[in-house]
Amino acid sequence: MTSITASTGRTAVRQPFFLFPVLALLLLPAAAPAQPLKITIEGVRVGFPAGVAGETRLKSGAWAPVYVEVKSNKDFPPGRAVLIVETADSDNVQNRYLTPVPALDEDRLVSLLSYVRPGNLGADIKVTIRDEDREYDSIKPGRMSQYPLGPDTVLYLVAGRSRPPRLRQVILQDRREEEQGEDEIQDLGFRRIAYIDRIEQMPTRWFGYQAVDILVLTTGNESFIKELVEEQSHCKEALAEWVRRGGKLVLSVGHNHQWVSRLLSQIEQLSKVKLIDCEIQGTVLRRHLVLHPWVGQRQVRPFAREPLEVAMLAPGKNVDVLVKERDFPVEGEAGGKVDNVERPLLVQAPCGLGRVLLVAFDLEQGAFTQWPGQTDFYLRLKQELEPRPSRAAADRPAIPGQPIPNPMAFDASPSPEIASLLQDSLESFDDIPVVSFGWVALFIFLYILVVGPLDYLFLKKVVKRLELTWITFPVVVVVVSTLAYFTAYYLKGNDLKINKVDLVDVDLHSGRSYGSTWFTLFSPRIQNYTVGVEPAYPGWAREPDPAGPGDDYSTLVGWMGRPENVWGGSGRSGGGGLFRRAYTYAPNAAGLEGVPIQVWATKSFTASWEAPFPADRPLFTAKLRHTPASPENVDGPLTSNLPVDLEDVVAFYRGQVYPIGRLTPGVPYTLNTGDAQRQGARSLDQWFQEYLPDARLQQTPRSGRFGWAMTGDLSYPALMKAILFFRKNENYASSDNATLRHLDQSWRLSRERENEVILFGRTAPRPAEAAEAVTKDGLTASRLWLGAVPRPNTSRPELAGTILQRTFVRVFIPVAPKE
To answer: pLDDT tens for residues 176-200?
Structure first.
């Protein structure tokens, strides 16, 4: 045996040098291992580009796109890793959205698109790439350039490679400052603007646009509109679905009208719904533009340089012509050079719950940018499309030359939000008594008295052994805790309780229905809940395709938060999550998996879906036409085919309300607006003032989740009236509508709209019942899944506990054109 000895100091070191080559051979593989696989995140941008200094625009409480650039040092197969975007909801509970990582080529920069919904203004966002075994890389985007806006901010998004001059200037500032240069404008206040100039920046899921209030799509740049027509990443479908779900789109068309026609045709083929029924038949040249009286510009003079290229529009069904003009010759001009045909220049139409405004010229075209009425045109667009500001916001004094402050971020007492009033009502359960703060304070005082002075006096004066406090103190704590637990158990019970509201918008123009659901869970125990929602087929929607991808209804499920600057609100400047264990969004946010809810606590959720009518019958049938003797009126039969009766039904037509009463399935009702006296017609204001009773409603004040008083004014019917027609409802003039404004269809109640009748009704209100029985009896338009997410070949778990269900229905009925 050979030994190796070594010593310090002057003692020589004796080593067998013949072993060095052997050791080198043994250690060589360890010294030069194979290069490990690495995926690095090269950059992250959250929200839409603002066009300045790398800033982006997104809203707290709303979905936003997340653009992530990654690189791999080796070829990477698809489906092995996931991109995780993590943040906190409005209750400071962490959540994650997962996106599969596609194939990555070695050393090639790839852009990935994901989504996030920050819960408050200060929510941290973390982006991670990992697989089942390891984490490759993670990063937190900088907050200074990607700070969320308040929920009440009005966000404009301009899509197109050329930006309309003066649009940003008019939108972002007061008209008194219109002489200020565009580069000097500060992007502050209630309105913000963002830009998309590349197709890959467009979301491929409709909810990626959720933060956008008004989208302006310019088509003057041929390369952009051509790429949009030819793209295969589903961004056209996402844009169209966002419009159908309540988006507002301004589409300008002029020189590249052929590409726009192809775009509209493709959207119709992909979604089976027309974005707008308006044929584009080429272009003509115009030397004048007035747009009076819509704009109010009365100055008439020819364009100084080149004429304006105007698209020849041929409006179809349910399209309103806002402006029609004819040109006229310039003095001294030879005849035959001017198109003097009266043509539509501005048309609009509903698309599902959305609104499409088609402008027959390019907003970025040189002739229009020199038009003196350009500022008035954009101001009128703002007036038409922006949500109504609350009276409280309008009464705030403004400092001259300074932007109006954001009330959600700076005002300690903002205007009441419609969504918060709805959440107050959802989080109140009639059969769960709430102990007032006075009783709680009294019991805390008694508890302190027992464990403090009384315990001391008892041990000192009676037992005379103070060291026994090591026994009496824990005994008192255990006894009081046990009594508190059983008292709460007696008061709050051990049953799951659910409050749920459904709104179904039935669009007879396209044969589709759009559902909105809000619900609150009261958990009797500490539990993680998996939550899903689907329309109640076959009575309310067409059955899903068993061989389909499992997202037939494009369902979106998420948490429900208050828009204000309060606890649990997305308008506050909160921080990171309190619960580090995150729940997960199902693919495409079609459900939530593992949402933690504490014992005897509530959490509110929201969901939306769209579905075609059942295959065997439409949800409603109607044959309304204009009365020959009085063309301004309509008459004809309408029939409900819903699986349940509707009560308190009314019809809206040209600003008037016509009571119908009850609609029984299969029983026709004849509507005749010409006989107003017999029909009992009334004004909108009168209908908003009418009281609709609710069996649940109590007149005594009750405490909500955070201890504020709740009175009988918070009835579901009254709130639904405000949600459906917010701009027309003066009862809520001092309220804001930041998160439910996409459901406001007030513009369709105009007296000028003669081609549509709107119905509104509700199912009979009933007290809380067994949840599974209510789910099966046709009363509810959507089915709630707890314990699983709706997927093909998956059975819905039986719903435990009790549920208080309210269902409201709004129907959009076309009227045949006048003969």
So the answer is: 444 555 554 556 568 899 999 999 9
Distance CA 658, CA 651 (A): 5
Could you tell me the pTM of the whole model? 0.86
Enter the tokens of residue 604.
């509110």
Q: Which amino acid is at 99?
A: T
Task: Name 544's bridge partners.
Answer: none
For residue 72, list its beta bridge partners.
Answer: 39, 106
Helix (H, G, I), strand (E, B), or coil: what is residue 732? helix
98: alpha, beta or left, given left = phi > 0 and alpha = psi -120 to 50? beta
Cβ-count burial of 230 within 10 angstroms (0-12 exposed, 13-18 middle, 19+ buried)?
Answer: exposed
3-state secondary structure of 21: helix
How far is it, in rounded angstroms, from Cα 556 to Cα 534? 10
Beta-ladder partners of 562: 569
Identify the pLDDT of residue 99. Answer: 95
Q: Identify any residues that bridge with 71 across adjacent strands, giving them in sequence order.
A: 40
Q: Are 605 and 592 in contact (CB under 8 A)?
A: yes
Q: What are phi and psi of 510, to 5 degrees?
A: -115, -10
SS (H, E, C) 365-424: CHHHHCCCCHHHHHHHHHHHHCCCCCHHHHCCCCCCCCCCCCHHHHCCCCCCEHHHHHHH
Q: What is the dihedral of CA 550, 552, 557, 563, to 10 degrees?
A: 150
What is the band of 636 on the pLDDT scale with cuts at 50, 70, 90?
very high
Mean per-residue pLDDT, 696-718: 51
Q: Tell me whether the omega of the peptide bond preceding residue 538 falls within 30 degrees of 0, making it cis.
A: yes
Per DSSP, helices labelled H in 624-715 are: 676-679, 684-689
* Residue 44 contacts residue 139 (beta carbons within 8 Å): yes
756 in Cβ contact with 748 (< 8 Å): yes
Query: 539: helix, coil or strand?
Result: coil
The CB density around residue 764, as the number of other CB atoms within 10 Å, is 13
DSSP string, 500-512: EEEEEEEETTTTE
Q: If we measure between CA atoms, which residue out of 639, 743, 750, 760 comes closest to residue 692? A: 760
